[in-house]
Amino acid sequence: MSLPPASAMSKQQSKESLKDKVKGIFGLGPSRPPSKQTESKPSELIITNEILKELGPECGLHNRIRIINQVCDLAKSKKFEENAVEALWTAVEDMLQPEQPAEARHAVLQLLRAIIQGQGERLGPLRAYFFKVVRDYHPCNEDLADRLEVFKALTENGKDITYLEEDIARFVLLWMDVGLTADFLHVLVNLVKFNSCYLDHNVSHMVQKICLLCNRTTSSTDIEVALQVLDAVVCYNCLPSDSLSVSFSTLCRTVNVKEFCESCWKLMRKVLGTHLGHSAIYTMCRIMEDRYGGLHGGRCLAPRRRVLRGNGPVGGAPALRPKNTPTLVLPSFYKAMTSPNEVVSYEIVLSITRLIKKYGKELQVVTWDILLKIIERLLQQIQTIGSQELKMIVHELLTTVEELYEQSGYHGSSERFFSLIEKCSDKRPESSVLTLISYRAHSIQPAKDGWIQNLHKLMEKFFSAGRLSFVLSTNRQLYEEELIEVVVIPQLSQIAEDRDLHVRKLATQLLVDLAEGCNTHHFNSLLDIIEKVAGRSLACSGSFEGEREMSAESPMEDVKTAVLGLLEILQSKLYSLPASHASRVYELLIAHLQLHYKNKYCSVIASSIRLQVFDFLLLMRADSLHRLGVPNKDGALRFSPYCLCDMGETEKRASEKKPAGSVSPPAGSPAPPAPASSIRTACLPYSLAFSVLLQCLKLETDWKVLKLVLDKMPSMLQYKVLILTSPCSTDQLCSTLCAMVTDRLISERLRKTPDGFARMDVQLAVVPVLTALTSYHSYLEQSRQRELVQCLETGLIYRSAKQCVVALTMCTVEMPDIMIKLLPALIVKLTHISATVTMASPMLEFLSTLVRLPHLYANFVAEQYVSVFAISLPYTNPSKFNQYIVSLAHHVIAMWFIRCRLNFRKDFVQYITKGLRSNALLPFDDTHEQSSFRARSTSLNERPKSLRTAKVAKQGPSSNSPLKS
């Protein structure tokens, strides 16, 4: 701002007071129109003599401070005229004397900061003078915050030190002695980044003081900024080698603070990436080996425990890498463990675990030797220290090495490593012990003396079915008998009581594999053990409704393994000698199924066992020579030369002394001497399986199991040799099936049924079995045959009508004595079934079959004949049915018309003609009277006159008959 002309200025001074003048100068008075000069040049603040006088010592202190505050406000936004800064400083310089009140010194420092901020580019060499003011300020320990603000303004937070270069390093060191705060450290970060070359000779002292701050302070902010300074020194300067020890000791201590752990890691990686990398590793090793935990003049900068602990995470993993040769660092780790210390050992374990996980496959034998020494000492220490956390991570380290071994990436001594595992095997997980056993088992070979005894000792110490299976599979052909007798039976005889499911399951599978190929007397001993496992309870712990689907690791999975193993054994033993082996396995399977229904097992796994066993039993077949057989995996049926479905004369006489349905004596009891013939042949009576099938039909609660049995029974019943040579009670089977059809509550008994399940679904599954049973009519009592036919009649009104009609067709052929009495009523019932495409074929085939059996309808009256025509006529409609059905319907009508009595034919002609017209002819007539022929022909007026009073025909020939189900 420029001043007005002198004449105007003198006039203005006479009219305005000093106060108004000061306000006008500082722009606080009323606004004035800008002059031409102010429009052409930037405004400058003119410091007049009056202002300087107000700031002079002759004015009061409070007045001087007030004016200083006003000048401060303007100095930040306006530029001073030339030499104004010097004039202002001369006026207020005396206020910085030590004897002045703190308020005065504070105001002057604020003014100095404002001038530097506003006039910075115009100060020039004055910057050096103001820097000297800040540096030599007395009293030196007071007003630190304000002095620092002036310094920050003077250097732009440490970025610009023009005119200050020579003295800046000495100033930094002096300031760090009196004012080492986070605020100053922020400035120091910039000083290092932008002016590092002027700090070279003093970096060591700076690092020393910063590290002391980190070790002593409790302020997280101070530590954070101190780490930033160290990072700047590493990145923008050069960390002196003599500062490595103090720096690393500080980092090792600070890394224990969770929030600074990552920062310390990154900083250490940067140091190792410089030319000081090897020196850094050497320094860390000296720190670990030094009993003080730090190497700064023999003085411990931090407690040894914390320094050694931090040395692991900070320096350990970066240093422990192949390019840095871990053999340089690992001996120091080992020496640091001389005295047991939980935290030190903990960090060492973490470091070498990281090393092995990342670089394990690249480590060589020498490195592994040192690592194994460390692991051995760790295993010794966890016995005395007693820390659960340390024990846990040491065992995790062992697991890491084991995983590397499994991946063929371990290049150390396997014998030495597994010796360490064996020492702590009681604390290791199962997978670890299995790996140990696998290693030991490979050394057990027939070429070594006493190898079977060594195997037995190994199994006594570490029982492992998997390893035993491996040894057996590789040496079975030559040493099977010795291995079974010396190792298998002694070790596995009580496997059913073992608490570990996995062990029980593996051991059971091993026994099954051995038994399947064993043809000696040891077979019964193996089967005794399998029987114990199969006899374990399958009871469900909770209610069926609340039961969840069990996984493959169900507590009952071993039982399933045993039973399915028996199925495999039986399928194999059917075709090998001695035949008695197959007989015993067969009886064990039957006894197991009987346990299911005796104990009401309803668990998921129990149902799956029953499903597979019944599936096998229903696949058994017998040929004309009474030889048993089952389909193989390819579906090919092969019959056994040794196993029969009936007994010879000698066996029959012996069986007469036994109660019916008995099975073999319990396992372990002495068996009576068998005749010579029984060695080559054995009887597997199907009556045993048949009795369990009957139990299934009566007691089964799982619909999936019951449906499997019902679906496969018709195929099984086709093999009459299998059923009749035992013999099996087909009469009882028929009774049971009929009870299932008439049981209204059967759907409530069943579980695991699909959506929309009803009693009808059971009837649909039962009818095919009843149909197959009709061929056994000679083995059914008269009352049972009648019950069978009545059950089929009951099913005519349900969705099972088609199957029932097919079954009734069979009955007319197989059981004429029963059907002759039931046919009249049956024919009338068939008129209630609608003429549909589904029912067309079975209904017409039933009538076509019946017409060829004149002895069955010899006593038919007009009512039955009318019913036959009423059933057949709707199927002559070519618009609804295919040509085969229409032709068959015409054939049936013609045949029945020919076979009926002569005196009935006259009355039937008109009835049949009307029916044919309304069904067979009308679709080809385009007249408008088509609907009249569709009138219901069941009216009594439309019937033959001779039948109107009989009221016997329930349905006319029209497809629109109201007599529908």
UniProtKB/TrEMBL annotation:
The record's Gene Ontology biological-process terms are:
negative regulation of insulin receptor signaling pathway; negative regulation of phosphatidylinositol 3-kinase/protein kinase B signal transduction; negative regulation of TOR signaling; negative regulation of Wnt signaling pathway; regulation of cell cycle
List all membrane-crossing ranges.
none
Compositionally biased spans, kind Polar residues: 956-965
**InterPro entries on file:** ARM-like, ARM-type_fold, HEAT_type_2, Tuberin, Tuberin-type_domain, Tuberin/Ral-act_asu, Tuberin_N
Q: Using the record for this protein, list the coiled-coil segments as residue ranges, or answer none.
A: none
Q: Which GO terms describe its molecular function?
A: GTPase activator activity
Protein name as annotated:
TSC complex subunit 2
Per the UniProt entry, what species is this protein from, by scientific name? Anguilla anguilla
| Taxonomic lineage | Eukaryota, Metazoa, Chordata, Craniata, Vertebrata
